Amino acid sequence: MSSSFAAPARGCPVHGVAAGHADVAGDAFDPFDLTDPFPFYAEARRDEPVFYSEDLGCYVVMRYADIKAVFDDWQTFSSENAQAPLRPIADEAKQVMKEGGFTAYSGLSARIPPDHTRIRKIVQGCFGPKRFKSIEPQIRAIVERAIDGFADRGEADLLASFAYDVPALVLFRLLGVPDSDVRMVKDWAVSRALLTWGNLSPAEQVPHAHNMVRYWDYCQALVARKHQTPEDDLPSDLIALQTDGAPISDHEIASICYSLLFAGHETTTTLISNAIRELLGHGSSWADLRDNPALIANAIEEVLRFSPSIVAWRRRAKADATVGGVPIPEGSNLLLVMGSGNRDEDVFANGEVFDIRRTNARNHISFGYGIHFCLGFQLAKLETGIALEALARRLPNLRLKPQEMAFVRNISFRVPTAVLASWDRPAS
Fold it and tell me: What is the top-level taxon of the source organism (predicted)?
């Protein structure tokens, strides 16, 4: 099977060179520096929209149409490498995980049909609008309590004081995890991100490998506990379906928990943090949203387009193919840079401009596309909308403090290290 996309090759004449030879853009590409990658993205879209990165061993795809086409062709471009460690796991770290009985596998994002189809059909019936609607009052209560904790200070790191815990507390309610475990599971999630998408030395991998063992043990114990004491939560729902004959194993339910206890809150923490940053940092955007809450829904879509939580994702070619006029040999890895595609001028006029009234903002590809479109997209937008409405209502003159924005070094998750803000304290 082969796949061909019509977008013509433009720019550098070395397109199509064999893997192992870095293109001009590949030489300049630092995939781990996400502080402000967008000027490079714009140049690459114009001059080398598909190039080879020798550092990553990946073909890097920068244009919207090409990225969307790869996502849509799951037969040719498999998701099997989506959560594979970017750097080889060192022998010592491997040994830690082997001795610890670590056998976790992707819940959905790295699975392929027919397993993906079977499991997603079962899970999406339990993890969808009906359950999200039922938990909305709890989300509002969690958000209001979080703001209560810092509103009188007049300043805070809104990542640490607000965005860090709120999505985890929501997600853990859905999964039946006690609030007291939030910090522990968040630490494990950081380890998972760094071990999978980071650039760790062999020695740096070891403590994170220990955390992966603890994380997987926790997920298995969670499923076992829900067998004994079912509650009103997702794992209990899946176990009930399993008991009624649904084709899903305990290992697969634990793997769903393993995925959601990471993706179900880490990306929303980043979305809320980036929403605050961008809205406060672009002209009257915060004041406009504060004065007209009806703008919130579209503002979230614009944040997802302009400053997505996940800027890049991986695929592997299962057959010889062509992307953007560049031959992609079978077995090649691809990095799809959604953070670039979301600013593609062929789709988004003035794509480098942040505009909360943009009429086609929701056409972004930050949640992916095709069969792997993010299962939790509705929950992420619901939580972020509630968070922004509450902040605008309770801290109407919120403003960013002077700061140098820094982001965690990795290839996929554009996570700020802090969002320092201040506001006028309520009169006593």
Answer: Bacteria
